[in-house]
Amino acid sequence: xxxxxxxFAAICTLAGCMPAGTGGPAxxxxxxxxxxxxxxxxxxxxxxxxxxxxxxxxxxxxxxLAFQLESGRELPVFTRFExxxxxxxxxxxxxxxxxxxxxxxxxxxxxxxIDITLTNSASASITIAAVKRADIQRHLPQAACFVxxxxxxxxxxxxxxxxxxxxWVQLNARSKMAIFVPVDSPPQETRDCLHEELAxxxxxxxxxxxxxDSVFNDDNVHTVLTRYDMLILRxxxxxxxxxxxxxAEVARRLPSILVRLNPAGQSRTSxxxxxxxxxxxxxxxxxxxxxxxxxxxxxxxxxxxxxAQNAGWTDHRMGxxxxxxxxxxxxxxxxxxxxxxxxxxAYYTRDPVTQLHAAHVAAQLAAFAITxxxxxxxxxxxxxxxxxxxxxxxxxxxxxxxLLRAEALELQGRPREAQAVRLDSLGWARYGFGADxxxxxxxxxxTSLSPLNRGNGQS
Length: 459
What we know:
alpha/beta, Serine Threonine Protein Phosphatase 5, Tetratricopeptide repeat
């Protein structure tokens, strides 16, 4: 399931979430020529990075993804669909959801080689149920969306939630799946659910924090399936594999499968990243998940950072540990938060695989620069990452970066350029944040950062 975590791209002012008054950013936004919001923008095909991992690492990842659940429970046998796969949509799915699903299915056919098609038949292999977010959370309060075997509706799931047929560990093959996605969430969140849950319905059920370039990671940094993910899925449906195989049987066949599917991976050096300890995973989930008091969140984030430091990590997980602590201290101590964001960025910029991670942190650093009135620094921080956000189809991040750049341009006395960038951001914001009120709230939040808008009693 896709867990509810703090949005990686969310911006809260590092100066302490300054309250809005009546004469600063709200009045400027209202007086601007924005008026009614522009049409929602959507992505077309984007060029994705090639897979940079070694086949040795991919084989290890494949086995850990395919033979474990996110809870840590072992799966005794390999399972997948056999033969052509059909998929239907039930409920009142909006047009943007159907468009995103069609694009995803085309990618699965082309990049992963999976024979999957849409149908209206009730006997479809996979049912995507478009339901309300509240209906999902009535069943799984911490889930944004989820996938279940051997059911086709929420009512059927409610009757069989603890039955053997919905227990992944008991599966010997896959023939029927249901995916529950929210239709009243922002379009990007619905799209993200389609990618993650359909990938898990078809393939791996586990998530691994050690994967830097994958949707199969609970950090929620990657929100659309990457080239790495498509390679994993293509290997999942390799003719050498079949239902009921043990881990050892799959392991024996993987090397030759990967030589065929990813010949470049044979010469790449293994990174050999260590396993992620359960204690770190639980600390991160406590820090960033729902239902925890602020003090407990901060304690959990410090615990996660200590575990990462004691493990001697130098990869993206260390960066994420710093990022989490920065997020949780930014409204309490801006300078401490800034130090953690800078530390996170130092880890992320070392590796070309973690450009998207770096883009998220650049937004946080640019927000701080704007609160300090440093428009030039904010422009330098955000400039390299506009294309990164677009390439990874993250409209929420792209619009946030553009809104930050608009404020930076205002600080530099370039209001016309600022307004053009701001207007361009709003179409992406409609896809990334959803309802008009959410878009206007994001606009207001970021304009509140600038010292130009903190007059008239605002602080």
